[in-house]
Amino acid sequence: MDIVCHMITSLDGCILLERWSKPAERVDFTQVYEATAKRLQGDGWMVGRITMAEYGQGVVEGEPAGMRGRGESVPRAYVGDRQDRPLAVVFDPKGRLQFSKSGLPTGEHVVVVLDPKIDEAHLARLRRAGVSYVFQGDGAECTEREKLSAALAALEETFGVKRLLLEGGGVLNGSFLAAGLIKEISVLVCPTVDGRSESAKLFSWAGSEELSPAEGVRLKLLEAEPLANGVVWLHYLNTLA
């Protein structure tokens, strides 16, 4: 499966729009972002738990779900009320998100990526809402790449998807970067500045300082296109993925 990291940032690589300076010319950030996303032709998109919780309508964040006891059978992936809609995949391994419906206001069908040890009570709540779920890799020796690769394989096998847009936040983007699983990077650079040292960045990886999360990345420029009102689209291929 091809993973395309598609994001919109300030000139200093920050991704929290509410912290940006005002551009000299008015920019509809949502419109330009979605228009470019369509050109990338994904079968859906992926986000982290915090990003999904911000959708608000029909999505509530709570405490982590319970875990299965030893010896309990491993659950299977579940396909809910998809109705041929594109996918909105959320990585929520601890099962903190609660859903009241299977779709988002923007029309996508929700698929949750969970830890396979999540208990049956949480899975039952997801099924009642019509939400689909698959599982990431598991085990004490399981690397981050193996966990994410298992989730992607489950998504491809269960839903037949071949290309997904990775749309943040920075922590999830950083995990995919460090795992060497990003095939393309698409960035809309806006004529704005954040300037805060603590602001969320395009990629945020909290691993060992002795390791480089970008070790598996060699970028080749595919497109560089000026868009309306000072926005620039940069589209790269990772030749190592």
From TrEMBL:
InterPro entries: DHFR-like_dom_sf, RibDG_C, Riboflavin_Biosynth_HTPR
GO biological process, one term: riboflavin biosynthetic process
Pathway in which the depicted protein is active: Cofactor biosynthesis; riboflavin biosynthesis
GO molecular function, one term: 5-amino-6-(5-phosphoribosylamino)uracil reductase activity
Record has Oxidoreductase as a keyword: yes
UniProt xrefs under Pfam families: RibD_C (PF01872)
Keywords: NADP, Oxidoreductase
Domain Bacterial bifunctional deaminase-reductase C-terminal, chain residue ranges per copy: 3-232
Domain of life, source organism: Bacteria
Record-linked PANTHER family: 2,5-DIAMINO-6-RIBOSYLAMINO-4(3H)-PYRIMIDINONE 5'-PHOSPHATE REDUCTASE, DIHYDROFOLATE REDUCTASE FAMILY PROTEIN (AFU_ORTHOLOGUE AFUA_8G06820)
Protein name as it appears in the record: Bacterial bifunctional deaminase-reductase C-terminal domain-containing protein
Organism (species): Sutterella wadsworthensis HGA0223
